[in-house]
Amino acid sequence: FIRNVSVLMSVKNYKQGGSLEDEAVYLNHDLAMLRIIETFSESAPQIVLMLTITLQQGQLDLITAS
Fold this sequence. Notes:
Number of strands: 0
Oligomer: single chain
Helix content: over 70%
Number of helices: 2
Organism: Nothobranchius kadleci
Shape: rod-shaped
Subcellular location: Membrane
Strand content: under 5%
Structural class: mainly alpha
Keywords: Membrane, Transmembrane, Transmembrane helix
Membrane topology: Multi-pass membrane protein
Family: Belongs to the XK family.
């Protein structure tokens, strides 16, 4: 819902004579933030799984150094 409101506000600003360059910078920053969130959401479950297994075993394997 918030993304839809953001798009509507962008269209409104453009129609009111807002700068296309400013809008491009804003959208570029927005996209970068979404990529960071996407990357974290993909790797976080794997990290949680590895930590859970390690804590349940109570020891580290030789493969993981020590």
